[in-house]
Design brief:
alpha/beta; TIM Barrel; nine-stranded mixed sheet; 23% strand; globular
Length: 217
């Protein structure tokens, strides 16, 4: 597998195992999208990764005394077959796993991991790449995440929320933040959410950006 980095940090995003949980991150290299606000461009190219075997990855993850693993990217599902094997191997070690994926690739076949699927809104420039099946297969404990730049994004997020509301999942509304975390954007988004509330609507302020955590190179 092409791996950009394996490191420990905090789950800064909403997920079924709780925001703020310490986690081992497995960041895969390569992405098929080019979002306007991308904050991991260093992992966008497959060439940014180093080839590692699944056994090597599992060994590296297990060196840390943590039971939570976050598989992210790049776009991890571009390496779908390997990711499915990795999940099975990590599960046998008792790891709780979330996968962060971009909504352009089907999400079936990754049990028992939990999915955090990012629906790309208009300001991303990538909404045309969204696949309905990537969201329609989600189940209780999974998350649809919206990264919101403006009110147009928010209104579109409400439409998608209503479309998939019967799934019983979490809907995480996340403001686009600067490196140091502009909390004014979060307050504005919260005002919009309170004006047009929905069930299972969660304000998702990226904890790692507020703390300004540095990812190891």
């Amino acid at each position: 597998m092409k791996i950009r980095s394996i490191f420990t940090s905090v789950d800064g995003e909403i997920n079924d195992f709780h925001q703020g949980r310490l986690s081992v991150f497995v960041r895969l290299a390569g992405c098929n999208l080019n979002c306007s606000y991308c904050d991991t461009k260093y992992a966008q190219s497959i060439k940014a990764g180093t080839e590692k075997s699944i056994s090597e990855i599992v060994s590296n993850v297990c060196k840390f005394n943590l039971d939570k693993v976050t598989i992210t990217g790049g776009e991890p599902l571009l390496q779908a077959d390997e990711v499915k094997i990795l999940i099975k191997e990590l599960s046998t070690k008792g790891k709780k796993i979330t996968i962060e994926t971009n909504g352009s690739i089907n999400t079936d076949g990754y049990f028992p991991s939990r999915m955090v699927v990012d629906y790309k809104l208009p300001s991303s420039g990538m909404e045309h790449e969204m696949k309905v099946k990537a969201f329609s297969l989600l189940t209780v404990g999974d998350v649809i995440k919206f990264v919101i730049s403006d009110y147009k994004d928010f209104q579109r997020a409400l439409q998608i929320h209503d479309l998939f509301s019967s799934l019983g999942i979490i809907f995480a509304y996340s403001p686009v933040l600067t490196k140091n975390g502009d909390l004014g954007q979060s307050a504005r988004l919260l005002e919009w959410m309170l004006t047009e509330p929905r069930k299972s609507m969660v304000l998702n302020v990226q904890l790692h950006k507020i703390i300004n955590l540095k990812e190891p190179e």
